[in-house]
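In the design runs reported in the main text, the only information available to the sequence generator was the tokenized backbone. The following block is the verbatim input for one such run; it is reproduced so that readers can re-run the procedure and compare outputs position by position.
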């Protein structure tokens, strides 16, 4: 190769103006959803299709490799590279045209699959392939891998649904397929295929999920030399896509899910060929192991009732009429040898079941043994008729190696997904990984299967292709690669001249990191294992606010990879590795990535692998500033309960001083707070003063009311409303002897030594007050969340578990009691659940209580944007307002004047008062307002 000159300089000279070389970005892009870590030289984000051709030209000129990247959800390591990583998802993400008559859509390569679906749905159409990552994967990435998804039986693979491609080859030739029929590249390709017709006819296209290698069967004369379809699945090694036209299909009038129960997963595999005789659109397999994970992580109600058995096939049938679909569903239920079955006609219930399957890749990130489970052999496929036998042999292979996993997959296609707890973090683990993959590939080849059924071979399996294909077939791969990419610049190390499958592995290169402030009990006390929970599936890049999700508000605001949960995890992983991010806890790259993390904890519940970036950020701040001078906001905002207690001695004087001309803005700047924020007023009388001086005790069942600093000093009216509702429900509230603090502000600013002392005193006091099994009810969601979750991480389960188990939200306490709430019939309620409420406790009890009261509830997703200290700190205001504009502000602006804006969190109510003229109410206030007047 030619001696390279700086690729970023050449790229900028070629007109690419969005070129990133900073350490944070390079670390965030060092991995995709695979096991591999490869630091790029440059990340470029083209704004125009012409920029892609320019980038190829630059890489040819400099001799620097080029790797295409969409959503970064590649599980096989297809979207990482040592040179230029070209991210098309940032700018080239439009649906250019939908032609309902031709039933096609023309899109840019970075268009997200769900966005294409939304555009097609306006015409009663859909794009057929639907991988589980549909909310963030891009069409360009689907073309690269020949993505399939759950409904391949009904709609085919991506290669079956692409009608035209505009591409740039590695030699710089621009092709418009299928319009172009002759060119130097195409002419060379014809000669290559003509010399290997026998090999192509006997080794390629043997069954539907044969995705490994190049799909040379499409180049046969009988298949009309279809270069367009052959390029699908070539993993960016031959050409890069600049534009695609995909076929659309009509949505069926009626869908019905049939769940079939079997004694084990292999027996379910045996049944798959029978299911296929009923022409379903989907036939997916899971077993009790993955269902148990969902129940454990999300609660017993997260999984709707399933039919009997320990493994299940989810079979979807469709019909032009409801009767036709129902008849087909009944026939499947009767005719497939299941021990039990269930026909699911309720769309919401079916969606909840399908979500278990969609989250499979993330949920499988922990094995049944509780160990980290890895990709690498997660995508093999065999002809469906052999699936049951293959599953038994594969299970024997795992037993032989002493490993476990959570199997699931597209059983109607013979495709099995599983992540396996191979001991990559142990001495000799890399050798075990290699031996297992070789034995697994040998097994699948014996069944006439494919190393990959839809994820592509990438860095994980390309080295194994000789176990599946003959030397003649491999020679054809090399010749095709040379025709398209003679300089070998496009995604080198993949498919042809592959990198060793055990090179560039991320986990073995990481070092354990212990001696931590938090326990990380589920990660063996190891920060490295905690941050490596992120498998890269990228759900944090999807906008789930429309379905009440929260993760990840900062990414939705900036659309920067480094501001996603995944991007932050990758930077932290590189900090642990220490070769490229070298400054440890105090690395600028780490603090850059964490700066816009709101500590909302949305990822703790919404991330299928259980990443808790709020805890990781607190740990980083703790380790970085321990025994060092901290940012001023850590003292002003981190010690807020302490300052509030001081102000409570003369609240009127403090409030008056803050209102003096110039004093407020000056005080805010000095405190590290954005001057556009307001200074909240201190209550003239704290809640505890009211409770002890004016409240008349009642009879009833005892309950400990945990009074947080925000309620006590700023919004005592919320506490008074809580007391009134509790007494109406037959409770007798009591307080701890002294005011206690959960240390939330110390936790969020990483002052964890102090947090342990403060929280320890609180847990001891609350334990004493709740002696004898008295429940504890929190008012402020974030503080309630600390008692429920963070306390055990900071103090240990032995000391804090009693309080954690006894702590309830107001809604949980009332629904568990079966209390009949006052009527809210006709009341419009716009609800902004606090992020910690959503993530730690869940908002289901609140929804149930409001429904029982008859309220008309609009539940918002996302975050309010303030998130405790985040939104008031200097440098965060604009992002905070942008986040508020995602859900909260539009909903409030469109709400009727009579509507209640339900916001239990003090920070949510503060954001409302800062940005709107509306007031937010706590659930207790909404309920108390509907109770009979106390004088009646």
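Verbatim output:
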């Amino acid at each position: 190769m030619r001696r390279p000159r700086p690729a970023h300089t050449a790229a900028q000279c070629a007109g690419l103006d969005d070129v990133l070389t900073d350490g944070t970005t390079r670390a965030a892009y060092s991995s995709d959803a695979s096991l591999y870590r490869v630091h790029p030289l440059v990340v470029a984000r083209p704004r125009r299709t012409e920029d892609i051709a320019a980038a190829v030209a630059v890489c040819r000129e400099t001799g620097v490799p080029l790797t295409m990247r969409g959503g970064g959800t590649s599980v096989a390591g297809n979207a990482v590279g040592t040179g230029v990583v070209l991210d098309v998802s940032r700018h080239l993400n439009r649906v250019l045209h939908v032609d309902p008559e031709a039933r096609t859509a023309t899109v840019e390569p970075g268009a997200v699959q769900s966005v294409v679906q939304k555009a097609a749905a306006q015409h009663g159409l859909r794009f057929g392939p639907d991988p589980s990552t549909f909310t963030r994967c891009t069409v360009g990435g689907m073309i690269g891998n020949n993505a399939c998804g759950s409904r391949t039986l009904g709609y085919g693979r991506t290669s079956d649904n692409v009608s035209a491609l505009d591409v740039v080859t590695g030699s710089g030739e621009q092709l418009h397929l299928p319009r172009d029929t002759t060119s130097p590249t195409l002419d060379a390709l014809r000669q290559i295929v003509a010399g290997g017709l026998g090999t192509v006819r006997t080794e390629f296209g043997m069954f539907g999920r044969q995705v490994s290698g190049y799909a040379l069967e499409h180049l046969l004369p009988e298949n009309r030399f279809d270069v367009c379809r052959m390029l699908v699945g070539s993993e960016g090694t031959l050409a890069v896509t600049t534009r695609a036209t995909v076929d659309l299909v009509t949505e069926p009038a009626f869908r019905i899910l049939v769940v079939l129960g079997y004694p084990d997963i292999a027996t379910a595999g045996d049944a798959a060929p029978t299911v296929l005789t009923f022409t379903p659109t989907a036939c997916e397999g899971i077993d009790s192991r993955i269902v148990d994970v969902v129940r454990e992580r999300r609660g017993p109600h997260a999984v709707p009732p399933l039919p009997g058995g320990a493994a299940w096939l989810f079979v979807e049938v469709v019909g032009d009429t409801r009767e036709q679909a129902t008849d087909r569903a009944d026939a499947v239920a009767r005719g497939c040898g299941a021990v039990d079955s269930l026909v699911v006609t309720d769309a919401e219930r079916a969606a909840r079941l399908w979500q278990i399957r969609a989250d499979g890749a993330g949920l499988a990130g922990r094995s049944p043994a509780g160990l980290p489970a890895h990709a690498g052999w997660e995508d093999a496929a065999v002809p469906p008729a052999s699936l049951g036998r293959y599953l038994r042999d594969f299970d024997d292979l795992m037993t032989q190696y002493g490993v476990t996993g959570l199997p699931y997959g597209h059983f109607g296609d013979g495709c099995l997904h599983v992540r396996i707890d191979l001991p990559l973090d142990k001495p000799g683990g890399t050798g075990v990984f290699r031996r297992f993959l070789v034995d697994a590939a040998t097994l699948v080849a014996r069944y006439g299967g494919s190393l990959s059924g839809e994820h592509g071979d990438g860095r994980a399996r390309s080295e194994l292709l000789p176990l599946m294909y003959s030397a003649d077939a491999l020679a054809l791969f090399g010749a095709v690669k040379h025709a398209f990419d003679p300089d070998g610049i496009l995604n080198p190390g993949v498919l042809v001249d592959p990198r060793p499958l055990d090179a560039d592995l991320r986990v073995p290169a990481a070092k354990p990191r212990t001696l931590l402030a938090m326990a990380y009990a589920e990660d063996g006390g190891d920060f490295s294992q905690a941050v490596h929970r992120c498998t890269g599936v990228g759900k944090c890049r999807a906008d789930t606010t429309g379905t009440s999700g929260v993760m990840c508000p900062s990414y939705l605001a900036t659309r920067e990879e480094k501001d996603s949960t995944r991007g932050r995890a990758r930077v932290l992983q590189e900090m642990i590795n220490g070769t490229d991010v070298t400054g440890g806890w105090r690395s600028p790259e780490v603090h850059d990535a964490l700066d816009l993390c709101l500590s909302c904890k949305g990822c703790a519940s919404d991330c299928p692998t259980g990443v808790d970036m709020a805890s990781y950020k607190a740990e980083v701040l703790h380790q970085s500033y321990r025994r060092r001078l901290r940012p001023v906001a850590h003292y002003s905002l981190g010690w807020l309960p302490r300052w509030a207690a001081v102000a409570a001695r003369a609240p009127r004087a403090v409030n008056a001083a803050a209102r003096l001309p110039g004093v407020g803005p000056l005080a805010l700047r000095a405190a590290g707070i954005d001057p556009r924020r307001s200074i909240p007023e201190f209550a003239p009388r704290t809640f505890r003063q009211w409770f002890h001086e004016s409240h008349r005790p009642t009879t009833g069942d005892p309950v400990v009311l945990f009074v947080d600093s925000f309620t006590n000093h700023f919004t005592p009216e919320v506490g008074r409303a809580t007391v009134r509702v509790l007494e109406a429900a037959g409770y007798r509230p009591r307080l701890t002897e002294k005011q206690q603090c959960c240390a939330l502000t110390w936790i969020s600013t990483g002052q964890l030594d102090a947090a342990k002392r403060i929280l320890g005193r609180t847990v001891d006091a609350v334990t004493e007050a709740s002696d004898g099994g008295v429940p504890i009810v929190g008012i402020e969601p974030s503080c309630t969340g600390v008692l429920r979750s963070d306390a055990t991480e900071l103090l240990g389960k032995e000391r804090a578990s009693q309080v954690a188990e006894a702590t309830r939200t107001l809604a949980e306490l009332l629904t568990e009691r079966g209390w009949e709430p006052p009527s809210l019939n006709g009341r419009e309620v716009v609800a902004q659940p606090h992020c910690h409420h959503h993530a730690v406790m869940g908002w289901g009890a609140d929804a149930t209580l409001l429904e029982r009261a008859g309220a008309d509830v609009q539940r918002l997703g996302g975050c309010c944007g303030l998130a405790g200290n985040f939104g008031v700190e200097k440098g965060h205001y604009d992002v905070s307002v942008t986040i508020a504009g995602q859900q909260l502000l539009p909903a409030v602006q469109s709400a009727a004047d009579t509507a209640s804006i339900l916001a239990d969190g003090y920070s949510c109510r503060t954001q409302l008062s800062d940005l709107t003229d509306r007031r937010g109410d706590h659930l207790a206030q909404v309920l108390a307002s509907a109770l009979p007047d106390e004088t009646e």
